[in-house]
Amino acid sequence: MATIETEAVVLRTLRYGEADAILALLTPGMGRVSAIAKGARSARSKQGGRLQPGVRLQASLAEGRGDLMGLRSTQVVDAGAGLWMDGYRLRAAGCVLEAAQRVVPEHEEAEAAFNLVTRALSLIAHAPPREGPPRLDPFVLGTQAKLLATSGLVPHLASCAACGAAPPLSGFSASAGGGVCDACLVGSGAERLDPAAADALVALLARPLAEAPGCVEPAAAPGAERLIALMLREHLGVTLRSGTPL
Ligand SMILES: [Zn+2]
Fold first, then answer.
1. Ligand 1 centroid vs 179 CA: distance in angstroms?
2. Interval between CA 240 and ligand 1 midpoint (Å)
3. CA 231 / ligand 1 centre spacing (Å)
4. 50 CB contacts (<8 Å, ≥6 apart)?
5. Which of left, alpha, beta for 69 (phi over 0: left; psi -120 to 50: alpha)?
6. Is the pLDDT of residue 48 over 70?
7. Are residues 153 and 179 in the same domain?
8. Can you tell me the distance from the alpha carbon of 213 to that of 177, in angstroms, rounded to the nearest whole number?
């Protein structure tokens, strides 16, 4: 059977049977794939300790029957050591990995999402801990915003998403695809738009991920998280477990 050499980030690991593990991997060429690592959890395994969420690998994958690939061999490209030194960083990384797990499609090219996630993990691994919950970390929100973009779901915030009227926009309607004007807000079921949250989201989408901390004031972070979450729920049916409940 064909063997595929690829870089991959471990999104999550599940115990399987006595000694095996099933890994969710994010790859540039195939998007999200599942692979079984035989014997990964046995005491003699050389692989076991490497296959943690957030680790970046060079992997050799064998095509199997159905969707489950076989993990033949791995080399660590980046163990993400900085993530394991600090609870805040580990939880922020967990938010990034969950977003990728839930948003990136299986078996579709995903180079932009792969580069985004590896960049986010590297930035988080080297960032100082911040005030506030990791789910509102600027790198977490920046990653989620850019995953909207890779999914073709950039919210429309330059004019009314429903009628095209010029700003000011007073509401947000995920079903309309973005901000809405006063006239469209009335009776539409849209909610009030926090202008600071909208500005933060626009900046997160426009600027490189490394600049995310300058895009979101702490006071605007919950609102920006909410706008992203509303888009994910409306258009992908995804509610992130690591996020603030809507
Ligand atoms: Zn309108």
1. 8
2. 29
3. 18
4. 57, 74, 76, 79
5. beta
6. no
7. yes
8. 25
**Residues 93 and 72 reside in one and the same domain:** no
> How far away, in angstroms, is 215 Cα from ligand 1 center?
27
pLDDT tens digit sequence for 155-186: 999 999 999 999 999 999 999 999 999 999 99
**pTM over cut 0.90:** yes
- Split into its structural domains, the chain has a count of 2
Q: How far apart are CA 241 and CA 185, in angstroms?
A: 29
CA of 159 to the centre of ligand 1 (A): 8
Q: What are phi and psi of 45, to 5 degrees?
A: -65, 135
Mark whether 109 and 51 lie in a shared domain: no
Cα–ligand 1 centroid distance for 165 (angstroms): 5
Over residues 83-127, the pLDDT tens digits come to 988 899 999 999 999 999 999 999 999 999 999 999 999 999 999
Per the domain annotation, does 243 fall within a domain?
no
Range of the domain at 214: 86-159+164-236
In a domain, 241, yes or no: no
Tell me the C-alpha distance between 222 and 245, whole Å. Answer: 11
218 with 128, same domain: the answer is: yes
**Separation of alpha carbons 198 and 169, rounded Å:** 10
Q: Are residues 54 and 92 in the same domain?
A: no
Q: What is the largest CA-CA distance in the chain?
A: 67
Q: How far is the CA of 128 from the centre of ligand 1 (A)?
A: 42
